[in-house]
Amino acid sequence: MRLIGFMLNLAALTAVVLGNHHESLSLSPAEHSVVRYTNESLIVQCRSPDPDVKLHWKSPKGEIIREHKGRIHIEQTSPEQLKIVFAHIALADKGNWSCEAAEGRLHSKSFDLIVYQKITFTENVSVITVKEGDKDKTILCEVKGEPQPNITWHFNGQPISVDTADGSKYRILADGLLINKVTQSDTGEYTCRAYQVNSIASDMQERTVLMKIEHKPFWTHKQFVSMQYAYINGTASIMCEAQAEPPATFTWHRKQKRLHSNERLYTIEGDHYWSRLTVHVLNVSVFDNYRCRATNHLGSIERTKRLEQGEKPPSPITFQLRGFNSNTFDVDVSAPRGPEDRGPMEVNGFRIEYMSELEFKSDAGKWTNARRKDFPFEEGATFLITNLEPDTYYLMRAASRNLAGFSDFTKVEKYKTLSLEPRVSSAHPLPQSTSLCFGLMALMCLTLRLGY
């Protein structure tokens, strides 16, 4: 009887153990660790084998989740299932979340929520301005992320090394880059680059800040010629170029009077860093001193140029094609020159203007949009006009240049580039307007001379 009683007790104990084994809770997804980024969503389902068991979810702090709506809440889909829903995950949600039976009869199930945060910058300023001479300036770059990103700095694309950062010029701070003794040479782009590596992904983000150094105007070109020539019924363009931050305001003056654009005497054009005064030389009264002033709130500079009367250069006496191929013209241009003791009004160069026949017709026969090339005077030299289209007619003209300006243009010539198609032999004679010649390029060329 004792043996029978022992066997019955053993069977009952085994049944209890087996029953407890089958009554374990289960989670879906079943991972022990779940990784998410901030603002992502997550749903974890807890299931009991016994529908009569009441389930609840606990936070990492041991608090029971009772809400049925909100950022973190529970949803009862069936008697044996209870879901926990994270609508928008926050960094504070990381930790161990557990599902338990209310009566404590079943084993609890839990998972570790690992939360990562992508790289974000708290600053969004893209341009900062600093006065020259300021002792120091900090370019802010506060970065958020989990795990904490690593930061590197670049100036105009070049890395700011650790050694340099520890020196007297730069110092890398937790929230930015400190620049000591700001000068104009510090103007440029500073890039804060953040790197982040974690178990599921890697990320790199950067932001660039343009730092401008405020300074008074200074001349763009140090070399300056104080005298310029023009001839009656011509024009004279006087340039004025200066760098400043903020950009300078340019004004033009003659004697004590400020000049303004008008159709008769003056045309003033400009941008942030230059201004051009064009004087229409109607008579000798315009030959005078012209003063350009560049000003911003930090200072002012000025220059004076003397406009003197000169002579109009003679037009070229030679303008002809010496050779050509499918994209180049070899042009011969010459002008009369004086004795060896050449004065300031001697021809010192040429301007060649050209445009395709189609462009000429589209512009109604005007040369306003023509392409042009300027060449210095060279005895016996020819000049190359390149980057032309093959098998295309071009209209061309030329003018001489001296210190007072340009001459009248020559009559218009019409030339054609070679085709890229292979030549085919023909027994037909060439037309009378066609001649073959050899230029300095040793290229056989076809010259069509048509006056426009």
From TrEMBL:
List residues of the Ig-like domain: 117-210, 217-308
- Among its keywords, does the record have Repeat? yes
Which UniProt keyword terms apply here?
A: Disulfide bond, Immunoglobulin domain, Repeat, Signal
Alphabetized CDD domains for the sequence = FN3 (cd00063), Ig (cd00096), IgI_Twitchin_like (cd20949)
Establish whether keyword Repeat is in the entry. yes
Pfam families with a match to the protein in the record: I-set, Ig_3
Extract the signal peptide range. Answer: 1-19
> PROSITE patterns recorded for this chain?
FN3, IG_LIKE
* SMART domains, per the entry: FN3 (SM00060), IG (SM00409), IGc2 (SM00408)
Q: Name one GO biological process term.
A: cell-cell adhesion
Mind telling me which InterPro entries this protein's record contains? FN3_dom, FN3_sf, Ig-like_dom, Ig-like_dom_sf, Ig-like_fold, Ig_I-set, Ig_sub, Ig_sub2
Q: Where is the Fibronectin type-III domain?
A: 313-420
Kindly state one GO CC term assigned in the UniProt record. membrane
Q: What is this protein identified as?
A: GL15970
Lineage of the organism: Eukaryota, Metazoa, Ecdysozoa, Arthropoda, Hexapoda
